[in-house]
Amino acid sequence: MKKLSNNPMVALFLLFGFISCTKNSTNSGVSTTPANLKLYAVSAVDGSGIVSFTASADNTVSYVFNFGDGDTLTSLTGTTNYQYTFAGTNTYTAIVTAYNSTGKSISDTVQIGVYVKNGAGTLVWSDEFNTDGAPDSTKWGYDIGGGGWGNNELEYYTSSSSNVIVRGGNLVITAKKESFNGSAYTSARLLTQNKFSFLYGRLEVRAKLPSQHGTWPAIWMLGNSISSTGWPSCGEIDIMEQMGSLINTIYGTIHFPSANPSAGVGSNTIIANAATDYHVYSLDWSPSTIKISVDGQLYFSYANSSILPFNQKFFVLLNIAMGGNFGGTVDSNFTSDQMLVDYVRVYK
């Protein structure tokens, strides 16, 4: 999603500028169009991922930078430092648009190679799932029960080893067709609530997803304040959701009160072999942005701010739901399906 300035006064200024331009578009003498725009970018060589951008133009009052990774920023001076986070050497096409006082604009682009020595940061928490048996009770708890979970879901979540177990280097979550306590299916939902939570950083989960119609796997987070403020005031970050009827479509979404809470704000992307190969689903989260990626490819970015609930500690959840508002109709031949999680890692 394209973002304007985090500064509301700048955004308002630009808005009135665009309105003025529209009303006076027939009068070529209203203002002078920006000219002689030049964009320069210098990438740090220390692996930090920091790039110094400088833009200059005549007849200009503000600059909007698009950094080529889904993030944008408005600057009045035309200079800014930006830090890319994806590890390795990547090439980005950055665009700057220069605006005059009435909203007239010109743009310039530059390609910049960026080297990030360690895009993740320092590992502060992880589960590699290397010990067979029940999940580590110091790291994971369980949501237990049925009743739809607010989404008309069909499963009853248990802590049974038939629904969740660590085996062969993976956390294995299994959704099954079986009648249990009034539900037609069983599954498992693990969470780190009251065991681990974090504020800002990078979350990576390497996983292989289920494939059958009606399954609804999720890798997601909730704010610690859910116990006191409830949902959606606590905020929700969905790093990965998938429906079995579209097995290679991956959804990233955030939910908060000022948006349509049920629908949220997000995007989706298509990958190959989501159910047969492992992929890395990741979140990069800071006071300024929320970025959701698959295999290092950013597909959803949103501007964080102090008015949103994404400035508190969040905990992690892993689960497979069945049916419901998102999962849809369950295949009549469904018997069971699994999500395999190779690791969960949190970096700061």
Structure write-up:
The chain is mostly beta strands and 348 residues long. The chain has two domains: 8-116, Immunoglobulins (Immunoglobulin-like, Sandwich); 123-347, Jelly Rolls, CATH 2.60.120.200. It is 7% helix and 48% strand. The chain has three helices and 24 strands. The chain has helices spanning 8-23, 226-229, 324-327; strands at residues 35-43, 50-58, 62-66, 72-75, 79-83, 88-99, 105-116, 123-127, 141-143, 155-157, 164-167, 170-180, 183-187, 189-191, 201-208, 215-223, 236-241, 249-255, 265-270, 279-285, 289-294, 297-303, 314-322, 336-347. Strands 8, 10, 11, 12, 13, 15, 20, 21, 22 and 24 form a ten-stranded mixed β-sheet that branches. Strand 1 and strand 2 (50-58) form a beta hairpin. The radius of gyration is 23 Å and the shape is elongated. It starts with 7 loop residues before the first helix and ends with a strand.
Largest sheet: 10 strands, mixed
Arithmetic mean of pLDDT: 89
Radius of gyration: 23 Å
Give the overall shape. elongated
Helix and strand string, N-terminal first?
HEEEEEEEEEEEEEEEEHEEEEEEEHE
Beginning-to-end CA distance, first to last residue: 25 Å
Number of distinct beta strands: 24
Which structural class matches the secondary elements?
mainly beta
Unreliable runs: 1-30
**Number of structural units classed as domains:** 2
CATH class term of the largest domain: Mainly Beta
Characterize this entry briefly.
This protein has 348 residues and is mainly β.
Q: Features of this protein?
A:
disordered N terminus, 348 residues, ten-stranded mixed sheet, 7% helix, Jelly Rolls, mainly beta, 24 strands, elongated, Immunoglobulin-like
